[in-house]
Amino acid sequence: MPGPNLPSPSRSPASQPGKDWVDVSRDSATGIETIRAHFTGHAYDPHFHDAYLVGVTEQGLQEFSCRRALHRSTPGRVILIEPGEIHDGQARDEAGFTYLMLYLDPAWVTQSCTRVADGTFSLHQAGFRATLNDEPRLAAAIRRAFWRLHQPESRLARDGALDALAAALNSHFGASEVVRVGETATRAARRARELLREHMEQDLGLDALARLCGADRFQLSRAFRAAYGLPPHAYLVQLRLAAARRRLAMGEAPASVAAAVGFADQSHLGRWFRRAFGLTPAAYRAICTNVPDGKFLDR
């Protein structure tokens, strides 16, 4: 349960039986985003975030792939996903599922979580020991922090809830799975990822990428997918989406963001963004900046 004076999990202004909905908010002081959503079928395509994701399933069976395994989260279970971890989401029955999630800015994690801040792990090395967790104390801390930010109260109330969340998270940090996988990747796969990050906005073909990495295109494709869970093109799309999300949160217009990160146009960005995050770029920008943009009609 959420705890005293916190909203019931069933409350949502967007909630309608049989309808999918996404409710997002962003705390300007910390950069932490909160999302509460309900899905009755396919929720998200495989994607990753630059943030640490900590959340709780409220209702139904939440099924998703992460760390090359299929996970099933039921009400009360905690979901922990580190930056760069590829995951998706879907419901497996007509009732669908409802969940709440905090997107923790890595800078906040560095400042607030002692196992990172005291040097036990560097920010680059810090990950989560497990994807699913059944600890009630952690679930309660996540819920409380979520509602203190999602329906803002006083700064003191929000800070107190975030401090309690940081304390609850500390014992769950371990060596980063993303870093471990990257370290075991072939030299060609690592080089390809570096090149994609450095030249994200360019239309680099697979043959050219393979030549730069010292491998043929088929070897590179196999090695890259084995290391990072996606083929090079799909991984590039995720890099562009992550960059677009950062730019939109700072108030840039969707059309200029699309051009800057390498999408063909605003519609191209809109299609991929909605598939990965469940809302349009304009809606996300408005949430983060309070700047409306064409009533969110871009696709």
Automatic annotation (TrEMBL):
Keywords: DNA-binding, Transcription, Transcription regulation. Signal peptide: none annotated. Residues 1-22 are annotated as: Disordered. Transmembrane segments: none annotated. Residues 190-287 form the HTH araC/xylS-type domain. InterPro entries: AraC-bd, AraC_XylS_family_regulators, Homeodomain-like_sf, HTH-like, HTH_AraC. The keyword Mitochondrion does not apply. Pfam families: AraC_binding, HTH_18. This is AraC family transcriptional regulator. It comes from Hyalangium rubrum.
